[in-house]
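Q: Give me the 3D complex with S-adenosylmethionine.
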Amino acid sequence: MAEQSTSKQQSTSPKVGSPKSPSISPTGAGSPAGALLSVEVSDDYNDDADSALGHGDDAFSSTASISSSIFEYRTIKGRAYHSERHNSDYYAPVDERANASVDITHHYLTLLLDGKLHLAPVKDPKKVIDIGTGTGIWAIDFGDEHPAAEVIGTDLSPTQPEWVPPNVRFEIDDATKVPWTWADGTFEFVHIRYLFGAVADWSALFAQAFRTLQPGGWIESAEAEVDFVSDDATVAPDSALALWGRMCKETGEKIGRPFTVLTDNVQKTGLETAGFVDVQTVDFKVPVGGWPRDAKLAEVGRFVQLTLENDLEGYSTFMWNNVLGWPADEYQIFLMKTRKELKDRRVHSYLKVRYAYGRKPE
Ligand SMILES: C[S@@+](CC[C@H](N)C(=O)[O-])C[C@H]1O[C@@H](n2cnc3c(N)ncnc32)[C@H](O)[C@@H]1O
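A: Here is the predicted complex, encoded as structure tokens.
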């Protein structure tokens, strides 16, 4: 990315435009996540002090324009979720707190890609769509970088800001309702990021992307596996962090929208089955906390920790209470333990993130 982005996010969102950071290559390009190199632990992260940011170590099947005011949400335990008109069971809220985490996530992913917004070799596309755009922060940054491109972001809820670059707009659309309303060959780039837990049929999603792309157009899919793992056994099997993985996986099975996108190799298989060629995958270990010796990865890790600590309830309450019906009196203890483990400098956990991209043949 050539310039610092000027995302016009609402004031409730952190200013997390595209970063400039030291360069580091992803490890294990094209290899399965388990084959990634290990991330070295900084000497400061083997003691038993808590880490703390700021403590010195860094601190409906048809689309509808949002201007038609579909501003409806449902409230669960004081948090705003998608309107019931969408049969999505989507686990995360869509309020200000949740949106802040989406924006921080964009920040750490952009850091991870050394300031780039994507890995697919896309050249000056004229029409781009960001599926499940969230706060629209990726679409806005992409629109800023490519003023000649028309960029559309779609989501179930109109949580995106109103003040956006003139070439960017947002629409309400359920990506899982097929066929998409877009005509064949509409786009030159389809971007899909962090829809784990939201999609029942990834093949159907990729097939729609294939249909609506022009020949020669690119798709990119970036997903994470919500399992906290470690290479040095510092994530204990009976830890709260380990319980997160089980909670997500059991939720995915119960609602039929898996969280195991990487384990199931959904991206590569799905893209190739849809007809994409030149499919590449790039795997990352995304640290949780500032424990890596490598400065860039430590910075990424601090933002991962921040996005989690910002909204542990938002990420988990629907799963724990509404989907799984796990004991309500244990929920607060679970959150408390999670917070403690996230701050524990002896725990060197990471999440796996996979970028996959491919081209529609000419
Ligand atoms: C974790 S956020 C990621 C946002 C954005 N893609 C990013 O990476 O910054 C997932 C988003 O997907 C949206 N979503 C979930 N199910 C969806 C569906 N069926 N159709 C469209 N968007 C959906 C949610 O509303 C949420 O905004």
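A quick observation: Residues 54 and 302 are 10 Å apart (CA to CA).
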